[in-house]
Amino acid sequence: MHDLKALRADPAAFDAALARRGVAGASAGVLQADNDLRGVQTALQADLARRNEASKAIGAAKAARDDAAAASLMAEVATLKERIPAQEAAGRAAECALQDLLSALPNLPADDVPDGADEHGNVEIKRWGNPQSGGLEHDALAARLGWNAESATKIAGARFMVLEGPLARLHRALGQHMLNMQVAAGYRETVVPLLVRADALFGTGQLPKFAEDLFRTSDDRWLIPTAEVSLTNLVREQILDGESLPLRLTALTPCFRSEAGAAGKDTRGLVRQHQFEKVELVSIVTPDTAAQEHERMTACAEAVLESLDLPYRRMLLCAGDMGFAARKTYDLEVWLPGAGTWREISSCSDCGDFQARRMDARFRVKGEKGTQFVHTLNGSGLAVGRAMVAVLENYQNPDGSVTIPIPLLPYMGGTTRLELTL
RNA sequence: GGAGUCGUGGGUGAGUGGCUGAAACCAGCAGUUUGCUAAACUGCCGUACUGGGUAACCGGUACCGAGGGUUCGAAUCCCUCCGACUCCGCCA
Q1: How many Å does it take to go from CA A293 to C1' B40?
Q2: Which one, of A254, A194, A209, A189, lies nearest residue A358 by Cα?
Q3: For residue A17, how far is the Cα from the chain centroid?
Q4: pLDDT tens for each residue of A132-179
Q5: How far, in Å, is the CA of A371 from the C1' of nucleotide B62?
Q6: Of 1.10.1760.20, 3.30.930.10, 3.10.310.50, 3.40.50.300, which CATH number belongs to A119-418?
Q7: How far is residue A382's CA from residue A137's CA, in Å, rounded to a whole number?
Q8: Subset of residues 83-122 in chain A with CB less than 7 angstroms from any atom in strand B
Q9: What ipTM did this prediction achieve?
Q10: Is the C-beta of residue A38 closer than 7 Å to nucleic acid chain B?
Q11: In the CATH hierarchy, which top-level class contains the domain A4-103?
């Protein structure tokens, strides 16, 4: 959510920033709605003031047993009451109109975010490791190592997976390894709801605009598309002690995405599923530390890739490719030798005070007056399914077996290689 | 699933029709006192819109979970919804 005062103070700057995200001339409508609202309020308040004044006088007149004066005042109030309800309704409508406009506008990009309309505008700013090439793609490998695609389709339909035996264990090992690393890096391990209220999704920015990307339950809850929703909303409607910041949280959870609009895209493998696991990182910080926290968080995600010796590159997303709530985002892309491409495996975003305003999450500093909004950051550290894809392709042997990366061996119960099942 | 209770400011918690934007206490802020800390004392201490003022500030309106109703007038009475809690039953 945006700061209306800032928008009023400099609508041109607001428009220029949003134009970089492909949203043109947003301020005019908002200012108009804001103006409408205030106009209605002012007119209404004048009538209400007179009504209150007259009501007090009625009480006084009745106490003085002046029935004539009371009757005439009551007649005046009656005429006021004829138009007050309409004004109140207009005020509520104006309020709604303003909120609808405001809540649908994405965050403003940070100054150091490059221009660009889509992923072609992203800028590579770091590369790590030695990308190899050749070998099979992950789906061909997985099909012979324990991926039961037929059963998944029968049970749940397309874009779900069933993994069996050592391959299932590798998946678990990856999640455990990542979560352990992030806890060691200072993130507090957390277990959170997978089903949440609409308010929580509004807070992080998925609602009201992106309802079609989500699954919804019959009792009107929603499945989280990422643990960012649950973790970030942990501080909603709170005033935190500044001393308690930064707050660093992590959780390993399933994530659910309807993948509306992704029809036909990545349908073959395990890369784009309705359900997948992810280790999420969330930081709640003071405004002055947000930028350095963003670097720290991204480094924590990179550390996982480095621990598994998976080559990757860090991309700074351009203004047009960022998510709704982000003001600056780094994507990490892992190298897939079989597919011969870079594939997104983590996304780390600084959301500034955008989510904090929507959640009403503030902090107070000892010795200072008033409260400020916290800044929120979130990142994947990492997506488990895609990490498994990367391990399969990067650790495959000529015979189609896959060597288990050394850091995962403690979780594998003695298995050192995934062997072909047929 | 059955029965019941409750929703007030940063927190606890008074308030059951006008004198309540809302007692009191705690927390916070600014002072005074004090050798330091602590303690004590005094004042301040919600948000939005709006009128006046360079400003400190002084007025008006709204907000006591949300919406609707009754009334000249509602935190207070009525209805609907949302949320939380308690007991019983059931259950991993």
Answers
A1: 44
A2: A209
A3: 20
A4: 999 999 999 999 999 999 999 999 999 999 999 999 999 999 999 999
A5: 23
A6: 3.30.930.10
A7: 20
A8: 85, 88-89, 92
A9: 0.82
A10: yes
A11: mainly alpha
